[in-house]
Amino acid sequence: MKQQGIPANSKKTAGWLWFLTGVGFSILWPSAAVATKFGLQVAQPFVICIVRFFIAGLLMVIISHGILRKRLPQKHEWKQLAIYGLLNISLYLGLYVLAMRNVSAGLGSLAIATNPVLFSLMNALIFGKRLRTITVVSLILCMGGVLLAAWPLFKNSYATPGGIALLMLCMVIYSAGIIYFSKQSWENMHILTINGWQTLLGGVFLLPFAIATYHPAKNIWGLQMLAPILWLAIPVSIIGVQLWLYLLKDNAVKASFWLFLCPVFGFIIASVMVQEPIGIFTVVGMLLTLAGLYLVQKYKSE
């Protein structure tokens, strides 16, 4: 049977593809926190960053220019890519790995879910827009949720106040990167070209710090180090981003609701893979954060 000239089977297949894409993104995105924790057991933070960024960046650039034959960035676009890479890669992900030394993997994924709320707040403050009550309420709920989920973890050294503060600074920088990206004219530059070069440039900016702080004894080169880094580089940095872009292109409002599943899967993955505890504080804190995220998404959809 057909509806409006579109085969019912095709619509059903498209629906399943969208659903599986959303689930895949919701699992891959928070898995980065657990992979980072594994990497930190055998490598310094900046070493993880540099290897990850160069692997992911080179793969994306090779695919973009070598296989898809997309054009190279031109003139002023290099400056845009450099600034975006500094914000989105060097500062955000560089500080994120540092924060994960003193924060549980579950909290790392929960903090990422607060980004839409911080983005709405910063967008209003930077561009002089009226700060809506719903944004403030959402921010209070999200921050309260993160702190509540973290509270019992302080006692067992799963988190520290400094680690939480650095983690939230990462989210602010990430939001700034999104705002910068959205305000630039990228013309017809392919998304793999943008992601590839900003990732490489972000790695280049971090390279001096990695060299200056490098201690051979703190890095155990081998499969135990490369496995989590490869996971961060390919399934997270490349596949996860492409899944997210597919969801956004299909329906930006509906796509944002997949962010609700990220902290849920994040805590489950952390509990299974690194035996992080899930207690009543964790559940209530997560629910408060999701409530704050829901308010912002509901306002956007309206």
How would you describe this protein?
By secondary structure, the chain is an all-alpha fold. The chain is 79% helix and 1% strand. The protein has twelve helices and two strands. It has a two-stranded antiparallel ribbon. Strand 1 and strand 2 (6-7) form a beta hairpin. Helix 5 (115-126) crosses helix 7. It is globular. The model has no long low-confidence stretch (mean pLDDT 85).
Strand content bin = under 5%
Number of H/I helices: 12
Across the major sheet, the strand order is 1-2
pLDDT < 50 stretches: none
How does the overall form come out from the CA principal axes?
Answer: globular
pLDDT average, as an integer?
85
| Largest sheet geometry | 2 strands, antiparallel
Helical content stands at over 70%
- The number of distinct β-strands equals 2
Return the structural class.
mainly alpha
State Rg: 20 Å
How far do the termini sit from each other? Answer: 34 Å
Oligomeric form of this entry?
A: single chain
The ordered H/E elements are: EEHHHHHHHHHHHH
